[in-house]
Amino acid sequence: DPANPPTIQVQEGIVDPVAVSARSGHALVLQADGGVVAWGRNDHGQADVPDSLPPAVAIAAMDTGSLAVHADGSVTGWGLNFNCGVGTGSIDVPLGVDITDISGGNVHWLYRKTDGTVAGRGCNFNGQWNVPASAQPPVDFEANESWSCVLAPDGTISAFGYAGFGRLNTPSGNDFIDIACGSYSGLGLRSNGTIVAWGDNGTGQGNVPSSLENVIAVEAG
Known about the structure:
The chain has strands at about 15-25, 25-30, 35-40, 55-60, 65-70, 75-80, 100-105, 110-115, 120, 140-145, 145-150, 155-160, 175-180, 185-190, 195-200. By secondary structure, it is mainly beta. The strands form 5 sheets. It has a 3-stranded antiparallel sheet with strand order 1-2-3, with no helix packed on it.
């Protein structure tokens, strides 16, 4: 309602933000100095940033957990991991692995290693972190609601995990340059600046406007 616009709460204490990540009611902000600010839903401690957290270079929010990558390749996780990793409620972090980037899903997350390949941790009951060998090392990767999608080096899109809502029915072609995976649907950006959608379309999220062109990046929620 234009006459009664919603009140937007601005989180205090954010200085020089360089990255954001939000999921299921809580948000993370990475600041230029490596500090992390979190707020919102906190029923499992996902917004309780550790006081001793070393400076971060990347962040990712999960449904009930949060992750931060550090310059030395280590990862700190806080919150809950749904008892899927090593049989504990704490975030399941791989040991002895140098990590450069991460993407958080609902109960799983993907990470890129220094050799460029991508692997996963957390819940894997649908194979949502089993990156196909043919897609390694991905150009881009995203974890979401019990599924994942990756952009392979040859420009094709691969999706794996829970197949409901047509989430694994990725578009054909090898000219994709960016991807975005939402909870139940995905978007692929072609090199000619057009977008292809797949998966659930219950609220019209797959109805890409015919006039849309010259796109340079995509995101899905």
